[in-house]
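TASK: fixed-backbone design
INPUT:
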C-alpha cells in the first residue's frame, strides 16, 4: 500500500510503498478515504513529547484523524462487517479499566492512539484493534472529509468545550490560537449559544475565526490580548481556552478570566516548554479559577456529535480549507513549522 512514512525525526517525510497490514483478531482493516493533517503529527515528526512517554519506533506511519470503509474483520469482532463506513476515535480504550467503566475511555489506563500506538491514517490501509469498544459507525449523511475533519481537533474541542469546561449559552469564551483546534472551539462555542472571542497574530486566521462564529477577534500583534478580552467582556471571560500550548498563550488565557472562570487546556507544549509552564498560582487561588484539560473524546459521545453534524448544527467541513493528495501531505506538515497552514487540511486522495 501507499503511505507517508516518518523515517527520521525532523527530516522530510517520504511517500512510498509499504507492506499491507494484517487483521487483528479483535480489530478490522480500514481502507482510509480521508485523513486530517494535524499539528499533533507535526509534534511527533519533531520528536516532541518524550517527556510524556512518546517514543516512536521508526520507520512509522502517522495519522490519527481518519475515516473510511471496513475491508476485513477479525475473528472476534461482532459489531462491524466489511463495507461499513466508520470513523476512528483519536483515543481508544480497552473497555475494562476503571476509567472506561466510568465512561472515560479517552483516558483509559491502557490507552491506544491510532497513528501513535500503531501505524495510522497516512497509509491507505490501517489495522485498527479494539474495534467493538472503540470504532464508531459513520452515518451515510456525513461524508468522509467531514468525518476526518472531526479528527482529534474538532472532537477534542467538543469534549473540552461541552463536557470539560461546561460552556453555557451567553458565556464569553476567549480562545487563544486560531488553528484547527482553536477554530473548532470557536465554532462549537458559537453553535451552543456562547460568545467566542478568537485571539491570534495572523489576520487570515482571525478572518477564519469570524467565519467560524467568533463574535470578536483580537490581533495580539497590535494590542494587549488580556486587556482586549477584559474590555470586550466587561471584566473577563467565563472560559478561556489555550488551543496552542505555549507558555505565553496559556498564561494570557488564564489572565483573561473573570473570577470563578474556567481555563481549558487543549494545546500541548513543544520542546521549548517540554510539558512545563509556570502558573500564577496565587491568581488561581484568589479568583477561584478552575484549570481543566481535555484529551480526545470517549467513543460513546460520538453519536451526539455526529447527530449535530448530520443536523447541520455543527459544520466541521466548513473549517476544511483544502483537500490534498498523499504526495502533497509532507509539504503541508512542514508548513506547520512556521504556522503557515490555515484551518483544517485533509488528505483525500492516494
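OUTPUT:
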Amino acid at each position: 500500500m501507499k503511505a507517508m512514512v516518518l523515517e527520521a525525526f525532523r527530516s522530510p517525510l517520504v511517500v512510498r510503498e509499504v507492506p499491507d497490514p494484517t487483521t487483528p483478531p479483535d480489530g478490522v482493516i480500514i481502507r482510509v478515504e480521508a485523513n486530517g493533517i494535524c499539528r499533533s503529527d507535526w509534534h511527533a515528526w519533531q520528536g516532541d513529547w518524550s517527556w510524556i512517554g512518546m517514543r516512536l519506533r521508526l520507520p512509522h506511519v502517522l495519522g490519527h484523524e481518519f475515516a473510511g470503509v471496513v475491508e476485513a474483520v477479525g475473528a472476534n469482532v461482532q459489531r462491524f462487517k466489511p463495507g461499513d463506513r466508520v470513523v476512528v476515535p483519536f483515543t481508544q480504550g480497552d473497555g475494562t479499566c476503571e476509567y472506561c467503566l466510568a465512561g472515560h475511555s479517552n483516558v483509559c489506563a491502557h490507552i491506544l492512539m491510532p497513528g501513535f500506538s500503531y501505524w495510522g491514517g497516512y497509509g491507505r490501509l490501517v489495522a485498527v484493534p479494539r474495534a467493538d469498544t472503540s470504532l464508531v459507525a459513520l452515518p451515510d449523511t456525513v461524508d468522509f472529509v467531514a468525518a476526518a475533519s472531526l479528527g482529534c481537533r474538532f472532537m477534542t474541542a467538543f469534549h473540552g468545550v461541552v463536557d470539560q469546561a461546561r460552556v453555557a449559552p451567553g458565556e464569553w469564551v476567549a480562545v487563544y490560537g486560531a488553528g484547527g483546534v482553536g477554530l473548532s472551539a470557536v465554532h462549537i462555542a458559537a453553535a451552543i449559544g456562547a460568545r467566542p472571542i478568537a485571539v491570534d497574530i495572523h489576520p487570515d486566521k482571525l478572518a477564519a475565526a469570524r467565519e467560524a462564529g467568533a463574535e470578536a477577534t483580537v490581533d495580539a500583534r497590535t494590542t494587549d490580548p488580556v486587556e482586549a478580552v477584559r474590555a470586550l467582556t466587561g471584566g473577563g471571560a467565563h472560559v478561556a481556552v489555550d488551543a496552542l500550548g505555549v507558555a505565553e498563550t496559556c498564561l494570557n488565557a488564564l489572565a483573561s478570566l473573570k473570577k470563578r472562570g474556567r481555563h481549558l487546556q487543549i494545546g500541548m507544549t513543544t520542546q521549548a516548554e517540554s510539558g512545563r509552564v509556570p502558573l500564577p498560582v496565587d491568581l488561581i487561588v484568589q479568583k477561584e479559577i478552575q484549570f481543566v484539560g481535555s484529551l480526545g473524546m470517549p467513543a460513546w459521545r460520538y453519536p451526539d456529535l455526529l447527530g449535530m453534524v448530520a443536523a447541520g448544527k455543527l459544520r466541521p467541513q466548513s473549517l476544511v480549507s483544502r483537500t490534498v493528495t498523499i504526495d502533497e501531505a509532507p509539504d503541508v506538515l512542514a508548513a506547520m513549522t512556521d504556522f503557515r497552514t490555515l484551518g483544517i487540511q485533509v488528505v483525500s486522495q492516494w
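COMMENT: The longest strand covers residues 28-37.
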